[in-house]
Amino acid sequence: MSISEFSQNGTIYDLSSMSKARYNSFEGIDLIRFCIAVLGCALFYSPLVPTQEKSQAGPFTPPTAIFGFRDPGPELKAEKTFLAVPDPQLAREHLQFLTSAPHVAGSPEDLKTAEYVLEKYKAAGLDAYIQQYKVWMNLPLDIKVEVVAPKGVTMIGPSPEHVSDDPFQDDPRILPAYNAFSPSGDVTADVVYANYGRLEDFKKLQEMGVEVKGKIVIVRYGENFRGVKTFVAEQYGAAGVIIYSDPWDDGYFKGDKYPKGPWRPDTAVQRGSIQYLFRYPGDPTTPGIASVPDLPDSKRIAPESATDMPKVPTTPLSYADATPILANLGGPESPREWQGALPFTYHVGPGPVKVHMALKQDYQFVTIYDVIGMVRGSRLPDEWVVTGNHRDAWVYGAVDPSSGTAAQLEAVHGVGQLLKTGWRPKRTIVFASWDAEEEGLIGSTEFAEQHAKELSRAVAYFNMDVAVAGPDFGASSVPSLKQYLREVAKSVPSPKGGSVYDQWKATAEKKEQERRKPPEPESSSAPAAEPAAPVQHDVRVGNLGSGSDYTAFLQHLGVPSADIGSRGPYGVYHSAFDNFAWFTKFGDPTFVYEQQMARVYGLEVMRIASADVLPFNFQDYGKEIADYLKAAEPKAKRAFGEQAPSFAEASKAAARLEKAGAAVLQLQNKPLGDPGGMNLILRNTERAFLIDGLPDRPWFRHAIYAPGEYTGYAAVVIPGVNEAIDKKDLPTMQQQLQLLTDAINRAAELLERAK
Q1: Strand, coil or helix: what is 15?
Q2: How many other CB atoms sit within 10 Å of the CB of residue 31?
Q3: What 3-state class would DSSP assign to 626?
Q4: CB within 8 A of 632, min separation 6: which ones?
Q5: CB 398 within 8 A of CB 355
Q6: What pLDDT score does 744 carry?
Q7: What is the mean pLDDT of residues 154-182?
Q8: Helix (H, G, I), strand (E, B) or coil at 110
Q9: Which terminus of the chain faces fewer neighbouring Cβ atoms within 10 Å, N or C?
Q10: Which pLDDT does position 10 carry in this prediction?
Q11: Cα(first)–Cα(last) distance of the chain, in Å?
């Protein structure tokens, strides 16, 4: 899943057999590499292998000062040592091992990847262990989709994923393409085409007089989370759902398809979970508590009672298998904006195409494996800085998630070399390799629920799902961390020359005119989802919705969070072709972006773990909330007319937060005495935004950010207010506006106590 997870621009990870002999630990030849790097420290900022692209910027100049440090000298020295360590060749070896076999969560192959990560954590000097959880999941026993009418139209799927030249496509361990958390079912019905399966698409069918109830709905991937497609289809009475990948979104319409190019080939299928993550993620049977192996059954809820479990059978198809269905649909022509890239006019049906879906799912409790590695802080060991990447994959997962795991391991490598010099962070660093993220953010959610008490003192959570799908760096976070991420990016050299920040900003400026929507194909187009407020004239840092492992930390526990990645043309998301062959041909052939991401990832963790003063910026937070309120108020007036409540008190609270944040920023720049009290306030301010829970989904407790009920991945800002407006629910909107105002005032009041 991604991040943030995306549907068409996902992440690619593939595994080919990798020899463990060369890198059994960070000893031996690695120590030699390290010494060479230190001796050549004047040059270490340059990539360690030839760059993939000609330099587009001047030489990299490291910073001489860091926000949050009274004396930046020791930190700059540690960072310089760290940045010399991550090695493209070692990242390649990690990726090759991790993608050497399909490794769906809970499988024997998945356990082997956990053991590999554990070995690397321990070799680096981390206090590491494997944490098991017992969770409710499904695997496919038999998946069949066939056209049974009209006569003469034949399709029996899903077809095997196959291209002319791929070394990994025929592995017998590849599971049939399926959607996690789909129920079993045997359905035969006429087909209706519903575009992207958004709420507005189903409303349009209703306006057109096209009946969905009792039909099998075929929708294309993109524009929203796949689980939302099933959720809306369920509301409209559909008997089954087929989700296919249209070449318009990530196939030949974008460019050459794999293996000639990076885009989705005809038979590639996007797997993925349809769990209703917008209700709650994690093990469906244990919302709010951890699914530890010895948890009594009495503490679990029955799967059939779980509100995040879909009720409509759902399965994915390739566009090769979807073509006979769509090409033979009758009924009205689809709205022209619903037309995809297949070579015929799309109609909406119903019929005359009739499809038989027979899905047999094997549901059971499965053991999954998180790997946890800790570096105990020297002064504030109870304050955790947590950083994670998930390890499980639908097939090989070269981009998603193994590029992230490989980069994380090289960051761990760097921290391990620092530990040998006697360095220690002030705060405890927790590295995590999550399992079962793809099924529903399960490993991270269970860990967060298990360690809620310890995480009440956590400083931040840093996520990296898809580390590398291409050369374009990007980030999302809470507003208080956005400037921090920019500053970290200024401290890391880019393979293209200059800093990561320089290239990030140049790319953003180049794309600004052509980009009119968020870059993730599954991001929201629903009215409740607002873009990040442009409070600074600087490179954009996005907002956090859901779809990756920061969800439980931020939206359930209120831990300030961030997510980073590097993107590019990537059309094989969640297919068998997201493998080592694709990655080394299209993703990062020389692994210099793996090196870059290891450096950024490690630096963002190291710096905040040792900061004298925590580098949160709540002035920007107040500005962003003010912009969210300005966008929501006219929507409320359109929805409720004269009955619309005033936003004056909420706007006043946002201005108060901005003012208090600005005052604290002055103290952060020139701290006097012991900064412990101010740090406590800064650490707890994010938690002031927590409420008892959003309407109808109490697991989500953050008043400012949540995944949208009808978007799934994309962030909905001030969600209680915006979603009540969308539903035209005035009493709920009034209640949520007051709760929001109170939360903003709590945060401002905390900051006003800082000295």
Answers
A1: coil
A2: 13
A3: helix
A4: 530, 647, 718, 721, 722, 725
A5: no
A6: 98
A7: 97
A8: helix
A9: C
A10: 31
A11: 42
User: What is the reported pLDDT for 670?
Assistant: 86
Q: Which two tokens stand for residue 641?
A: 């007319």
Instruction: Say which amino acid occupies 753.
Output: R
| Rounded mean pLDDT, 652-673 | 94
Q: Quick check: 259 and 161 in contact, CB under 8 A?
A: no
Report how far residue 157's alpha carbon sits from residue 322's, in angstroms, rounded to the nearest whole number.
Answer: 9
* Cα–Cα distance for residue pair 737/317, rounded to 1 Å: 42
Average pLDDT, the chain: 91
The pLDDT score that the predictor gives to residue 56 is 55
pLDDT greater than 70 at residue 25:
no
Confirm whether 723 is a catalytic residue: no
CA angle, corner 656, sides to 653 and 657, nearest 5?
Answer: 90
Model pLDDT for residues 330-352, shown as the tens digit of each residue: 999 999 999 999 999 999 999 99
pLDDT number for residue 371:
98
Question: CA 715, CA 707: separation in Å to the nearest integer?
Answer: 5
| Alpha helices (runs of H) in 522-616, residue ranges in sequence order | 551, 580-582, 592-610
Binned at pLDDT 50, 70 and 90, residue 547 comes out as confident
Hey, what are 148's tokens? 């049974």
Exposure of 69 in the CB half-sphere (CA atoms within 13 A)? 19
Residue 601 identity = Y
User: How far apart (Å, rounded) are the C-alpha atoms in residues 221 and 229?
Assistant: 9
Three-class secondary structure of residue 331 per DSSP: coil
Helix (H) or strand (E) holding 639: helix 618-640
Interval 19-25 mean pLDDT: 30
Q: Two tokens at 197?
A: 């399966």
Tokens at residue 564, please? 């980073």
Per DSSP, the three-state class of 193 is strand
CA gap 650, 512 in Å, rounded: 31
Q: Which helix (H) or strand (E) holds 368?
A: strand 354-375
> Phi, psi (5° rounding) for residue 94?
-55, -50
**pTM across the whole model:** 0.91
SS3 694: strand
Helix (H/G/I), strand (E/B), else coil: 595: helix
Residues 6+ apart with CB under 8 A from 735: 720
Among the ranges given (282-286, 510-514, 736-740, 745-749), the one the predictor scored with the smallest mean pLDDT = 510-514
- HSE-up of 49 (CA within 13 Å, CB side)? 17
Angle formed by the axes of helices 618-640 and 719-726, to 10°?
20
What pLDDT score was predicted for residue 525?
28
Single out the catalytic residue among 437, 449, 633, 723. Answer: 437
pLDDT digits (tens, 9 = 90+) for 223-276: 999 999 999 999 999 999 999 999 999 999 999 999 999 999 999 999 999 999
Cβ-proximal residues to 8 (8 Å cutoff; 6+ apart), any chain: 221, 222, 245, 249, 250, 521, 522, 571, 573
Q: Are 718 and 625 in contact (CB under 8 A)?
A: yes
Which residue do the tokens 């998180």 mark? 370
Look at the block and give the residue holding tokens 């002319």: 164
- Report the alpha-carbon angle 13-19-23, nearest 5: 95
DSSP code for 8: S
Nearest to 433 by CA among 131, 722, 664, 106: 131
Q: Measure Cα distances from 656 to 36, 653, 662, 734, 747 in Å.
A: 53, 5, 10, 21, 9
Evaluate whether 466 touches 402 at the Cβ level (below 8 Å).
no
For residue 587, give the DSSP letter: I
Helix runs in 670-729, H state only:
676-685, 719-726
Phi, psi angle pair for 443, to nearest 5°: -60, -45
By C-alpha distance, which of 131, 109, 21, 30 is closest to 374?
Answer: 131
pLDDT at 546: 81
